[in-house]
Task: structure prediction
Amino acid sequence: MNNLPDFPWDKLEPYKERALAHPGGIVDLSVGTPVDSVPRAVQDALAQAADSPGYPLTHGTKALREAAAGWLRRRHGVTVDQRDVLPVIGSKEFVAWLPTYLGARRVVFPELAYPTYDVGARLAGAVATPADSTLALGPERVDLMWVNSPGNPTGRVLPARHLRKVVAWARERGTVVASDECYIELGWEEEPVSILHPDVCGGSHEGLLAVHSLSKRSNLAGYRAGFVTGDPVLVKRLLETRKHAGMIMPAPVQAAMTAALGDDAHADRQRELYSGRRALLRPALERAGWRVDHSTAGLYLWASNGQSAWDQVAKLSEIGILVAPGEFYGLAGERHVRVAVTATDERIGAAVRRLQ
Result:
């Protein structure tokens, strides 16, 4: 056994029951699952590839890899060779297994972070170290360091100068840096930058990996569609391991993902929906006594009214609103809650009315 923590979301069940009992129904702003439709062109691509009796390619089709490389170049100023793109079965599985793939013995991740970074370290039998500063890490070797910008749960954006320092520190020590960039297209007050951007990495991807997901950009959470790219040596190593392990994205999903990455219009429309929901929900929380910290990008509002996280969860559940306690993401979140903006327009409107 790997001493895995209890699944945190089970602790929310009593509060979910309370929110469900509200006469107007629950407004679930906890998990942050997409609620809007999958783009029609993506659905059509999936259906057209349904007759796929043979084994799919672990490396993905060339069309998929080219679509991913094109999207990075077009939207984020990042140039990668299509051969250095590797599809993954949703970014979460890759985050959970990357330390094992690398044989990591020590994994570092932010003090407030997506819980799967910690879980992945434990699955690998590695030492899991939450730290926001490299100065606190001491002389012991670090095999893998996660960075996350825009951050989950805080919505914080790491500027290029900060990422440059991380890259320089890691390269001096032979540490792999994996950048979780799943919310990179959702900058609001600040514009996120990829760790693979020349302003950050100096034009070399050595020792760097960037992880991307279509769950929020294209509402493909149900498709499990993501990819990793970066250092050609690392990507080749990961590809060989995933071939052995049978970690293969189904062919119809590869086709759907190709269509999604080739179309920016639907992503721009989805972004506008999230922007509108955020513009309503944030001031409503602030009027009701919550302070919103960071939250300059991404799909969450990192909020606090000064009470303990669970007291805030309880208070909001009484008016039928379910949010996630900050302690799910680290001890530093014990007085914050994470509020997702992924509910429908109607449910966001209900939340705004209840907060008045």
Summary: The first strand starts at residue 27 and ends at 28. The first helix runs from residue 13 to 20.
